[in-house]
Amino acid sequence: MSTRICLVRHGETAWNAERRLQGHTDIPLNETGLAQARATAASLATERFDAAYCSDLTRARQTAEAIANCCGLAPGFDASLRERNFGAFQALTYVEAQARFPHDYHRFESRDPEFTFPGGGENLREFAARIRAALEDIARRHQGGSVLVVTHGGVLDIAHRLATGKHLQAPRDFTIPNAALNWIGWNGESWSLITWAEQRHLDKTLDELPNA
């Protein structure tokens, strides 16, 4: 029996608006993000979830709590659902990171799976393994059920690739808007894509990448 997971990227933050890399930096939602969280909550009010999980970072917690209040859920906070650790890139805009670390930025932009950010960051292969393990653990825990997961743009990038078989190094050709709805399924052995980037409930939203 298939498990359905509704993945929601957190609402907008000031750093999203500035195109600044957040990673593990704990940034709250801005006013737009809070409004997006409320709109997403209203759009899910008739859904019946068996459980809810979210990253333990504030921007995800605020988004999850708004949805949980509408759906009668108590989200579990899980550090394994955090964004990728961008190391020394964190707090820099994409433009600043490219200027300060041109060689490293090229490896980041080209999705080199072995590139580890300077300053203690994660490489893409490690990050993908962390997210795969976290999502499969949730799916197994709620086999045959429906689960809400509130997380980050990089996590959704990995989830989409798990569901479609797209290689880690392949350029991203799908959107990851703040506070949109993304549904994937787990049949006990593999992932599938149900729907992606549903945002009828939202006004203008920002993508995870600087030029998207």
State the gist of this model.
This protein is an alpha/beta fold and 212 residues long. It has 7 helices and 6 strands. Helix content is 36%, strand content 16%.
Q: Could you please describe the fold and organization of this structure?
A:
This protein is α/β, with parallel strands linked by helices and 212 residues long. It has a single domain, classed as 3-Layer(aba) Sandwich (Rossmann fold), CATH 3.40.50. It is 36% helix and 16% strand. It has seven helices and six strands; from the N terminus they run E-H-H-E-H-E-H-H-H-E-H-E-E. Helix 2 packs parallel to helix 3, helix 4 crosses helix 5 and helix 6 packs across helix 7. The protein is globular and about 45 Å long. The model has no long low-confidence stretch (mean pLDDT 95).
Properties at a glance:
36% helix, alpha/beta, 212 residues, six-stranded mixed sheet, globular, 6 strands, Rossmann fold, single chain
- Tell me the CATH architecture: 3-Layer(aba) Sandwich
In this structure, how is the largest beta sheet organized? 6 strands, mixed
Taking all Cα atoms into account, the compactness measure Rg is 16 Å
CATH superfamily: Phosphoglycerate mutase-like
Helix content range: 25-40%
Query: Could you say how many structural domains there are in total?
Result: 1
Could you tell me how far the N terminus lies from the C terminus, measured between alpha carbons in angstroms?
36 Å
User: Could you tell me the strand content as a percent range?
Assistant: 15-25%
